[in-house]
């Protein structure tokens, strides 16, 4: 467990669909109509209620976020955000990935949500190198806490040992600065 100002930061290894929190974040695609990876897992575990709302929303630009209820999941809401496909790093990927995290947190605040869980956005099929992506994730969350406060707990839910260890190293370093 880590703390930034008044916000608890947790690292969790495992499946985000099992997390009990106000909102889990989905690494969706622009259609919001479901896909593989974490997106597929969330729709499978959450059931058709989530997809029905996504269809009505009608899509989401890269870097933005949209919200639905969470169907059968133990969380209350799903915040769907779209990270960038990594194409070498010169195509605004860093800014877009930052926005995906930051805008998810802004939406949580608008809904008065206090706890949120993020997967590692864009680092699966979208190919963003985890070392770079984790820096951006941590920076966006830290900036949001410092600029807006208003969130009690942020979970980073990592699916692999390697991803978990990378986050652990970076957060340890940040706490010792
Ligand atoms: P993207 O298309 O944004 O790259 P992916 O779903 O392909 O999204 O991958 C994002 C990350 O989510 C990857 O690290 C992947 O291993 C991880 N992941 C896949 N399923 C789950 C799950 N059920 N819970 C948490 N993380 C998951």
From TrEMBL:
It comes from the Bacteria. SMART domains: A1pp (SM00506). Pfam families: Macro. InterPro entries: Macro_dom, Macro_dom-like. Residues 1-175 form the Macro domain. PANTHER family: GANGLIOSIDE INDUCED DIFFERENTIATION ASSOCIATED PROTEIN 2-RELATED, MACRO DOMAIN-CONTAINING PROTEIN. NCBIfam families: PRK00431.1-6. This is O-acetyl-ADP-ribose deacetylase. It comes from Anaerosalibacter bizertensis.
């Amino acid at each position: 467990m880590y703390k930034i100002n008044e916000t608890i930061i947790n690292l969790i290894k495992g499946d985000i669909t099992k997390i009990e929190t106000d909102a889990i974040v989905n690494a969706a695609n622009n259609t919001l109509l479901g896909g593989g990876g974490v997106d597929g897992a969330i729709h499978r575990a959450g059931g058709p209620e989530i997809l029905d709302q996504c269809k009505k929303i009608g899509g989401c630009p890269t870097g933005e976020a949209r919200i639905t209820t969470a169907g059968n999941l133990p969380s209350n809401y799903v915040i769907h955000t779209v990270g960038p496909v990594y194409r070498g790093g010169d195509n605004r990927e860093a800014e877009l990935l930052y926005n995906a995290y930051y805008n998810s947190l802004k939406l949580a605040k608008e809904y008065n949500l206090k706890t949120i869980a993020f997967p590692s956005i864009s680092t699966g099929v979208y190919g963003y190198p985890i070392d770079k992506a984790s820096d951006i994730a941590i920076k966006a969350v830290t900036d949001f806490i410092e600029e807006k406060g208003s969130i009690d707990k942020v979970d980073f839910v990592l699916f692999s040992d390697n991803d978990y260890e990378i986050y652990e190293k970076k957060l340890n370093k940040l706490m010792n600065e």
